[in-house]
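== Sequence and structure of one protein ==
=== Format: two labelled lines per protein ===
==== Data for this protein ====
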Amino acid sequence: MSNTTMNYSQINDEGQPVNLINLISFLNKTFSQYGLGLIYLMGNIGSALNCIVFYQPTFRKSPCAMYFLASNFFQFFSFNFALLNRMLLYGYDVQVINTYDWFCKIRFYLFYILTANSRYNIIMASIDRYFASSQNVARRRYSSSKVALKIIIISSIIWSLIYIQVLIFYDINDDICQYQSGVYGMIFSIYISIDSGILPILLMVIFGVLTIRNIHQSKRRIGINQASHVEQHIRINHLSRKDMQLYRMLINQLFLFIFLNLPNPCYLIYYSYTINAVRPLIRLTIELFISNMTYVFIYLGFALTFANFLVSSDIFRRELQLFILRKLHQLQIRHGI
């Protein structure tokens, strides 16, 4: 503690590092106020509209759309709990999370559950597209609405059980809500970096590549002997109108996820290896800013899901338009316009 005080007095005498600390703190607060505020607005509107569109009859029975629906359902609550608390803490200095121990535990418990379900339902959608595009009949059976519903429910239960540890090992230490230091802290940091970054990205890349390979093989097989595969040709053409657009939506979502989620596990790996290091004030300020920005990127990736689907699929746009027109028509009838 004395070392930190001495370093701060030296920084104060030099003047410039204090200005740098103030600048970084100001940027962190500004990004949290306006950046997270915009993401909060976009995310709520986008996730609600995504849920509405994917619940329409056109998509309702599609297992891939069911995973999208589940992912956006959990995203909606993530925006209204985890993101909202982060915005209040870093943007407006509302210290509820660092004041009440029970809220500290519940906040991070729900954060990890909601983001894990949002993330891994997208991964399950990529796995589903691999099975759906397979030439193997037995594998294609795994792409069904019944299987998707079971996996969504079971995975929700599993994540709720896995993160019970947060209710035990998260506490308020030095006025900061965080996991316990020491061996557990290092292990948990490594686990989170794998669970939230390395493993999802690896799975998405693997099944994304396998799905693209299956699609190319299907088209090539039809081209080689189209006459003897008329029924299969009709099936692929049918898939190309809706399912192929789901492929495009998913692939774009995978790129978006990888690009915006990669900084967080990189930072967590760095932090796990330096968790016991003595940090002067300038380093603490920079690390706090970087840590916060990595979570801003995660929420931004969730918030851009609606924009991705809107751009990637004309069927999605059509269903959204039809829903809006139906609601406007109902309002006109109700008010006698």
The chain has 14 helices and two strands. Strands lie at 170-173, 176-179.
